[in-house]
What we know:
Elements: E1 2-6, H1 14-20, E2 30-33, H2 45-52, H3 60-68, E3 77-80, H4 87-95, E4 99-102, H5 107-116, H6 120-124, E5 129-133, H7 135-138, E6 143-146, E7 156-159, E8 168-173, H8 177-190, E9 194-207, E10 210-220, E11 228-231
Parallel strand pairs: 1-5, 2-3, 2-4, 4-5, 8-9
Antiparallel strand pairs: 1-9, 6-7, 9-10, 10-11
Amino acid sequence: MINILLEGYDIAVPWLYDELKAYIKPSHKVAVIALSYRDNRVKSLEDWNVLYGKDNGRFYGGIVGGFSAYGISEDNMVFLNDFTDSRETAKRKIENADILYFLGGLPDRMLERIKELELQDTIVNHKGIIMGYSAGALIQLSEYHLSPDEDYPEFSYYEGLGYLNDFYLEVHYEGTQIQDAAIRRVIKERGKPVYATYLGDGALLVDNGNIKVLGKVAIYNGRPGMDWEAHDGEIR
C-alpha cells in the first residue's frame, strides 16, 4: 500500500513532484474525500460549493491543479459530497478511483461522516494510493493526537482509519511549546515515534511500510541523546 501524508494541497511543488511522480500517473482516477469541513462554516450544499464547488470553489482549483501537474485531467477527478451523494454513489466513486485524496479540516468529523455514509469498510479496503493533507494525513493513522489549537482546545487522542499503526504525526509543526509538550506526551503514553512535518515544508511517503521523509520533518523517537532528528529524504 502507498500512503502519502501531506501538509497542504499544493502537490506540484518540486520537492514533492520529483518524488510523487513515480506513484501518481496520468491515467489515475482520483476520488476527493471532501468530508472534513467545519459544521459552523458548511451547513448547506451552497456552503459546500463555496469551498469545493467546480464554479469558483475556494479550494477546487488548487486541488485539481495539483493533480493536473501529474497529467491527471479534471474529468478523472470526482468529489465525494455528502449533501448530494448517497451511500451507493459515494461507494462507486471510491471503488472506481485509483487514488483516495482526503482533505484538510476536522479529521474527527470526517470519520464521523464516513461512518454515517457507511463507507469505512470500502475506504479501508481500498487497494489504491491513499493520500491527504493535514486532517487528511492524520486520519490515515490508526490513532492520532491533536495538540491544542483553535479547533481543539484540549489535547486528545482520536480514532483514525487504521492504515498506519507504527507512528504518530504532528502536522503544521512550528516548534511551539504546545506542540512539543503534545509530542512528548505521545511518546510517554504511547511509546511510538512522532513525525513532525514542518508547516508547509514536510511530508511522509509510506511505501508498503517503508517511511520516506520528504522535505523538512523532525522525528521524535524518545531515545536518550537522540530526541530530535531533522531529516530530508531519508528512508526510515
